[in-house]
Write a structure and sequence with these properties.
Keywords: Aminopeptidase, Glycoprotein, GPI-anchor, Hydrolase, Lipoprotein, Membrane, Metal-binding, Metalloprotease, Protease, Signal, Zinc. It holds the Pfam family Peptidase_M1. It is a lipid-anchor; GPI-anchor. Its EC number is 3.4.11.-. The chain is α+β, with helices and mostly antiparallel strands and 918 residues long. It has 5 domains: 204 residues, Immunoglobulin-like, CATH 2.60.40.1730; 112 residues, Neutral Protease, domain 2 (Orthogonal Bundle), CATH 1.10.390.10; 142 residues, Neutral Protease, domain 2 (Orthogonal Bundle), CATH 1.10.390.10; 143 residues, Immunoglobulin-like; 267 residues, Zincin-like fold. The strands form 8 sheets. Strands 5-4-8-2-1-11-14-13 form an 8-stranded mixed β-sheet. Strands 16-17-18-20-19 form a 5-stranded mixed β-sheet. Helix 2 links the parallel strand 17 and strand 18. It is globular.
């Protein structure tokens, strides 16, 4: 809800802003430069050493303007007559500079460089290094009434009496601290903060550090003052002004208060997140040999529709979507996996990202790669019952391999300095590929040595607190040399930089001559490689396993060097033994077996697949199928290999198989013959799985069983009368609102049931879902989520409830991916209608809308489904209008889609036809 004064207030703020913000590029007139700023990086002739920030808010009254005062102690690094920092949206009402004696230093004026978001303060004298500390004090006004869900902004909820209650929260990563207060807003600049916040007496303020004291003020307000923070970067500064309640647990030895906060009506959903937080925190501290830096950490639950970030690791004040950390026992283990992994991700950041900050965004993977890896690996220690380690293979590793297979993908370490460019670094390469590479090095050195290296990394760098990749390499190398886990001629710098500083993933081709195995490597791409050969090459840890030799199952038998034509390695095998390479999916590379080796493995898989461990079966499926799809051949062997799935009952292989089958369904959906044959094959493979697990969920079932049942329903329900009947009954229960909590099995059955009903029933169901969504209380986020997910399964009638564009932009990235598959593949909604709806939705929004940051991700996700000329033309036009900076990537994806079809559709049809005629 927006207050009536919102537009007027915004206009006044804009007018005030323009009054002090002349357009154009500011000239750097100081000692240092004398030229226009030619970089988006601060000149850093001055650096901050401490901030004292005070804010005065009235959010408790529904008033969204606020005033602020920031005092920044600064040191001069290089002689200059300018102080340059960041500001955006702040209306500066007063500015003064004082020297270390407290005397005013003359300031000529202050200007703004609009493009670079700089505040340029021209000083009346030359500031000299080593001349003592200066204090820059700025009074400013701003507003939380903004629609981009960034900076300091407002959220709201309805209380039990139906009254709208407002709150203010922050989301500063990556470059939005500057939109809430003037500051040096770069990740490598760390300093301390003293924060104090004025709010209504019925409300309370929280910030990074523990509360130090409260002072009552006149007018029904109070001042909350917080302890000094550790040295930290601006994007981690955070505060919350709300009337939320909390559940808390206080740990001892050492003391740590762990709390989760939410609106009062949701307080009963917080217990599990507190328990998960305490267990993960203590496991993390022990694993890394490092205590958490403060005496408290808060989790804050924000309404999903008001929090596009998903979650944010602010030091001591972590924020999440409500659906990410709320939990009730009826929801079972699947929800527990979600809570533990998201809490684990953000808590891992308290060390990797917070304690150790990246020198620049180029090294974002040093934050996100560690957080992605250890949300699973420390989570497996804190919550062994959830079996999180095996989920890494089906989650981040699989996502990385699919993201890293294009010609235009970037390397892990990648420089950019624009707002837009920095935002785009938060991708699967920074998260999933980095985690997969770190995990590979962990296994290659042995976990004990890698863990030791990470302890060195934390201890050796925490005082300075700013790192780049070479710091990590130094620490790991020290541990590896001490433990003799690396050949003497090898360097971690050489090994690791071959993965971090070049794009792509390698494919290792293996052929056999007796007991001699010969290996070559090249870069893998999901389509035919370019005419000009790739120059990419890596240090690759080659692991293998045989029934009689598992010594090198995770440890490398040898390191395959880059830029070598072929490597030979002898493996003695008994008669009939089959060798598998990268058997536990610990390496970040694909394996391409020569024909005779592959035939041996296919025969073994169909004879007795349990001769290979589940991760080895998954790796063989994924690598062999993807290599075949990139070449457009060998499909008779591929179908023989996949034929074994009729006997597969384990989680990891089926998750990997499902990912590949869904991709093939998406690509072939416009080819009627190919789609029909593929569907028949899929149903044949998955029907035994459906017969094993059925459609009824049992109490206390593991998450893996639930997910296997979900896969079976999604792939084979059409071929099972009992499944179709149960799906229809779930549709009926939806209209009767018989159930509050739903798992993925319910969602799969509901979707299939909605796809079965006729046009008239579908229209009626769309109306029922619409009414149910309107009636759903704000507290019942899971019921609402279930209803919203069902919209992707009612075809074109979904538009009776909500446009495709608005629907897709309102989803999280994971939910959006699933919704697109259901819309375009299962419901067969015309792609052009979805694209036109996205275009219409974007045309209604301003550039500072929350949609703006999501546009590239949505368009790139949709691009994976575009295979026909009409859709390609429409998407290109849409991209030009709304996100031209990703135009080349869109074109590359569309070309890759077309080539995929040209290469694979006919051979797949022929192979499937032969399979069914055999």
């Amino acid at each position: 809800m927006k207050k009536l004064c919102g537009l007027t207030c915004s206009v006044l703020l804009l007018a005030a802003f323009l009054a002090v913000a002349p357009s154009g590029v500011v000239q750097a007139r100081g000692i240092v430069s004398g030229r226009a700023f030619d970089s988006y990086r601060l000149p850093n002739t001055t650096v901050p050493t401490h901030y004292t920030l005070r804010l005065d808010t009235d959010v408790h009254r529904g008033v969204f303007d606020y005033t602020g005062n920031v005092q920044i102690r600064i040191n001069v690094v290089e002689a200059t007559d300018q102080i340059v920092l960041h500001t955006l949206r702040n209306v500066i009402t007063n500015l003064q500079l004082r020297n270390s004696a407290g005397l005013k230093v003359a300031v000529k004026n202050h200007d703004r460089d609009i493009d670079k978001e700089f505040l340029v303060i021209n000083v009346g004298t030359t500031l000299q290094p080593n001349s003592g500390t200066y204090t820059l004090e700025i009074d400013f006004t701003n507003s939380i009434d903004r629609i981009d869900q960034a900076g300091f902004y407002k959220s709201s909820y309805l209380d039990d009496e139906g009254v709208m209650r407002f709150l203010g929260l922050t989301q500063f990563e990556s470059v939005d601290a500057r939109t809430s207060f003037p500051c040096y807003d770069e990740p490598g600049i760390k300093t301390t903060f003293d924060i104090s916040i004025v709010c209504g007496i019925e409300y309370h303020a929280r910030s990074n550090a523990p509360l130090r004291g409260i002072q009552l003020l006149s007018g029904g307000k109070k001042l909350s003052t917080f302890a000094t923070t550790p040295r930290m970067q601006t994007y981690l500064v955070a505060w919350l002004v709300s009337d939320f309640v909390y559940e808390r647990e206080v740990l001892t030895q050492p003391q740590l208060a762990v709390a989760s906060w939410a609106k009062a009506s949701s307080a009963h959903l917080l217990s599990y997140s507190v328990d998960a937080s305490t267990r993960f925190m203590r496991a993390m501290e022990e694993y890394f040999g490092q205590r958490y830096s403060m005496s408290k950490i808060d989790n804050v639950a924000i309404k999903d529709s008001d929090y596009s970030a998903g979650a944010m690791e602010n030091w001591g004040l972590v924020t999440y979507r409500e659906s990410a950390i709320f939990y009730e026992p009826e929801q079972g283990e699947q929800r527990q996996v979600g809570v533990v992994t998201i809490v684990g991700h953000e808590f891992t950041h308290q060390f990797f990202g917070n304690l150790l900050a990246p020198k620049w965004w180029s090294y974002l993977w040093l934050n996100e790669g560690f957080a992605r890896l250890y949300q699973y690996y420390v989570g497996d220690i804190s919550h062994p019952e959830l079996k999180l380690r095996e989920r890494f293979i089906t989650g981040p590793l699989q996502t990385a391999l699919r993201a890293d297979n294009s010609l235009t993908v970037r390397p892990m370490t990648y420089y950019t300095d624009t707002r837009q460019g920095i935002s785009r670094l938060f991708d699967s390469i920074a998260y999933d590929k980095a985690a997969s590479v770190l995990r590979m090095i962990n296994y290659a050195l042995g976990e004990r040595t890698f863990q030791k290296g990470l302890r060195y990394y934390l201890q050796q760098n925490k005082d300075h607190g700013v790192v780049e990749e070479s710091n990590l390499f130094d620490s790991i190398e020290q541990a590896a040399k001490e433990d003799a886990m690396l050949p003497i001629t090898l360097s971690i710098h050489d090994i690791f930089s071959s993965w971090s500083n070049q794009p792509g993933v390698p494919v290792v081709t293996v052929r056999r001559d007796g007991d001699e195995f010969l290996f070559t490597q090249q870069r893998y791409v999901a389509e035919e490689p370019p005419a000009e050969p790739f120059t990419n090459a890596w240090w690759i840890p080659i692991s293998f396993s045989t029934p009689s030799n598992t010594v090198y199952e995770t440890l490398p038998a040898f390191w395959m060097p880059p830029n070598v034509t072929e490597v030979s390695y002898t493996i003695e095998t008994a008669e009939g033994e089959v060798v598998t390479f990268n058997p536990l999916s610990t390496g970040y590379y694909r394996i391409d077996y020569e024909e005779t080796l592959l035939q041996e493995m296919v025969q073994q898989m169909n004879k007795d697949h349990t001769a290979f461990k589940a991760p080895a079966r998954a790796r063989l499926l994924d690598d062999t199928l993807n290599v075949a799809l990139s070449r457009g051949d060998n499909y008779d062997v591929i179908l023989q290999l996949m034929n074994y799935l009729q006997k597969e009952t384990e989680y990891v292989p089926w998750m990997i198989a499902n990912d590949n089958l869904r991709h093939m369904q998406a690509m072939l959906r416009t080819n009627e013959q190919a789609s029909r044959l593929l569907q028949a094959f899929v149903e044949k493979m998955a029907t035994p799985l459906l017969e094993k697990y059925g459609t009824d969920s049992g109490l206390g079932e593991s998450a893996t069983v639930q997910e296997l049942r979900t896969i079976a329903i999604e792939l084979a329900c059409s071929a099972s009368q009992s499944c179709k009947t149960n799906a229809q009954s779930v549709v009926n229960s939806l209209s009767r609102s018989e159930q509050r909590y739903h798992n993925t099995v319910d969602g799969a059955l509901l979707c299939h049931g909605l796809l079965q009903i006729n046009v008239g029933q579908r229209k009626a169901m769309a109306e029922e879902i619409s009414h149910a969504l309107l009636a759903t209380a704000g507290d019942d986020i899971f019921a609402k989520q279930y209803l919203e997910q069902s919209l992707s399964c009612i075809g074109t009638d979904k538009t009776m409830v909500q446009s495709y564009g608005k629907y897709l932009f309102g989803l999280s990235e994971t939910d959006r991916s699933e919704a697109l598959h259901r819309l375009l593949v299962k419901s067969k909604v015309p792609l052009e209608e979805v694209l036109q709806s996205i275009d219409s939705e974007l045309s209604l929004r301003t550039s500072n809308s929350i949609y703006h940051n999501a546009v590239p991700k949505v368009l790139l996700e949709v691009a994976r489904y575009v295979t026909e000329p009409a859709g390609m033309q429409l998407l290109n036009s849409l991209t030009t209008a709304h996100a031209p900076w990703i135009g080349s990537e869109i074109v590359q994806q569309l070309q890759a889609n077309r080539r995929w079809l040209d290469r694979n559709a006919e051979p797949l049809v022929d192979a499937l036809t032969r399979y069914f005629n055999a």
